[in-house]
Write a structure and sequence with these properties.
This protein is α+β, with helices and mostly antiparallel strands. It folds into two domains: about 25-325, Glycosyltransferase (Alpha/alpha barrel), CATH 1.50.10.100; about 335-425 and about 470-560. Helices cover about 30% and strands about 25% of the residues. The strands form six sheets. Strands 10, 11, 14, 15, 17, 20, 21, 23 and 24 form a nine-stranded antiparallel β-sheet that branches. Strand 8 and strand 9 form a beta hairpin. Helix 1 crosses helix 2 and helix 4 packs across helix 12. It is globular, with a radius of gyration of 27 Å. This is Heparinase II/III-like protein. InterPro entries: Chondroitin_lyas.
Length: about 575
């Protein structure tokens, strides 16, 4: 068993004597403490504890929620600067939570969390439980000995389940490995170390541009990066830091001025959600300290300055690893004037100060034409921001045999500031079966024609095709972007959909219904939030426009201007 040194109320310097090589603490053996950072985490954790004390008996809480509530209480209880330090009022709520963790655990050591008897879902909670036990063990108060005893029993029961169980998704491998690394560090078992090495031996699923295979900022910030950092620290594998370093460097170009992280290319649930960079706080801190990276330091300080998100959750990490509270290197401005391509995702990002744009042509729909978790299917191909005015999505929907939205098959740069997205959709009409495949009983195989299933043995039928080719050219111009739409080979009605972030005012448009739908029939429309404004147009008429061969859609320009 390993005892570690944690921060105390009188701490003025940081020591690295208990930490393995390759972590941020290896930079120096003694560093000044970032007092503002500690005050922020302390205050945020105190606010969390107040909430936990009011709802810790919530019967519907998942195991991960129960574990996180316990972690929040323990962080405040063991931290010498917290107003809850060694507060006896926390002991009974903590006992309740710890006992609930014991009773929720199956005999095989796993928990249910959506999935049944799930090793990876259990691993999320086990990481928190390991941190809870270690903090209490180092604090070494007689009053928490019963809590530690229960936690230890849960951890010893869970370890073999994680070491022998399986996973569902790429990031689960690293979550299970990190949980095993923590459990092995506290209660060594060679089975745990062996299973970590098995998972790592598969290779880290990092794409050439630094993004992981799930292409998700959510899973990078909440799962993969923290887990790789934990494994690097506890298993002395500093090579893993390189994957996190490259991911954070790529994230710099996915950041929006307000702290959001672009998720358009994600293969997971966040591909249509809003995500904030606050999840990355200690990751940017650790690599900023290790590499003396001023850009990473700037991101970390911006997160602290905004103060959004559950920042109190990071207090336990800092108590566990005091070196994370060292003063950061001198900040260096992050990129804010660039055209950055991500070829592995068919994504491009353009930023000019407070104006940003995203271009995306990398859905998985062309290779796997279904919609499911783990696939990128978001039909958004363009986004635009001008300060607080946010155009969350531009989509194109041709009425072509009910084949759905335009989803570009790739993204191609055709000029210094010009990109092209394109797709070809072919829909068959099926001809009679060749005689050698015909059946007297008429009972043919149930097969897919691409849009529907029928007992017609589609694969063996000759076909006649109708084709729609769509090209969208996006050119950056002085006032914004020109979007030109070219639909050829088939004459079809189509709609161009612009979805603006709620909170602003639309002008120059006609309201279609009470549900927030509008149409730009003619001229130019505008979306305004405060002093920020996005103009779009010209309108293409009060009815849908049919695209004739080689025609250009009427809506072709999105301009940006502040007023």
């Amino acid at each position: 068993m390993h005892r570690r040194t944690f921060l105390t109320g009188s701490l003025t310097t940081l020591t690295a004597s208990t930490l393995v090589p390759g972590t941020a603490a290896a930079v120096a053996t003694e560093s000044p403490v970032d007092e503002d950072f500690l005050k922020l985490l302390t205050s945020a954790n105190e606010a969390q504890i107040a909430l936990v004390l009011g709802n810790y008996q919530n019967a519907s809480d998942s195991v991960r929620t129960v574990a996180r509530k316990g972690r929040r209480l323990i962080a405040g209880y063991t931290w010498g600067r917290s107003k809850y330090h060694h507060d006896a009022a926390l002991l009974e709520p903590l006992r309740f939570l710890v006992e609930k963790l014991r009773t929720m655990q199956h005999d095989d050591g796993t928990y249910d969390s959506g999935n049944l008897h799930s090793p990876p879902d259990s691993a999320f909670a086990i990481q928190d439980l390991c941190m809870m036990w270690a903090l209490l063990d180092t604090d070494d108060q007689a009053a928490t000995q019963p809590h530690r005893t229960t936690l230890e029993a849960v951890l010893r029961k869970a370890g073999p389940a994680l070491a022998g169980g399986g996973v569902h998704t790429p990031n689960h491998r690293w979550e299970v490995s990190a949980a095993l690394a923590r459990t092995h560090h506290l209660f060594p078992d060679r089975r745990y170390a062996a299973r970590i090495d098995d998972w790592l031996d598969e290779g880290i699923d990092a794409l050439p541009d630094g993004i992981y295979s799930e292409r998700s900022s959510t899973y990078a910030s909440e799962v993969t990066n923290p887990c790789l950092l934990t494994i690097a620290w506890l298993r002395n594998k500093p090579d893993l830091l390189g994957y996190v370093r490259r991911n954070l460097a790529s994230t710099l170009y996915l950041l929006e001025p307000n702290g959001e992280v672009d998720t358009t290319a994600s293969r997971r649930q966040d591909q249509t959600r809003i995500r904030d960079v606050w999840w990355y706080l200690t990751q940017f801190r650790e690599l900023a300290l290790l590499d003396r990276n001023g850009r990473f330091a700037t991101v970390a300080k911006d997160i602290e300055r905004r103060g959004t998100g559950e920042l109190g959750d990071f207090l336990a990490e800092v108590l566990e690893r005091p070196e994370l509270a060292a003063e950061l290197p001198k900040p260096v401005a992050v990129p804010d004037d660039f055209v950055q391509e991500f070829p592995a995702q068919a994504l491009a990002r353009v930023r000019r100060g407070t104006r940003t744009a995203t271009l995306f042509g990398g859905t998985d729909f062309h290779d796997i034409p279904v919609i499911a978790s783990g696939l990128s299917t978001n039909p958004t191909f363009f986004k635009l921001r001008q300060g607080a005015a946010i155009l969350d999505s531009v989509r194109l929907s041709p009425q072509f045999f009910s084949t759905g939205h335009f989803r570009s098959d790739g993204l191609r740069r055709i000029g210094p500031r010009t990109f092209q997205l394109a797709d070809e959709v072919k829909v068959p009409y099926h001809l009679p079966l060749p005689k050698r495949y015909r059946r007297n009983d008429g009972l043919y195989a149930l097969t897919l024609d691409g849009r529907f299933y029928a007992s017609m043995d589609f694969p063996h039928r000759p076909k006649q095709y109708r084709t729609l080719r769509t090209t969208v050219t996006v050119a950056e111009v002085a006032s914004g972007f020109d979007l030109t739409f070219d639909l050829t080979e088939s004459e079809v009605p189509f709609a161009i959909e612009l979805c603006f972030r709620p909170g602003g005012t639309l002008s120059g448009v006609d309201q279609l219904d009470a549900g927030g739908n509008y149409q730009l029939a003619a001229g130019t429309g505008a979306y305004t939030v405060g002093a920020d404004r996005i103009e779009f147009g010209p309108g293409n008429g009060a009815t849908r426009v049919s695209a004739t061969p080689s025609s250009t859609a009427a809506w072709s320009r999105t301009g940006c201007a502040s007023t």
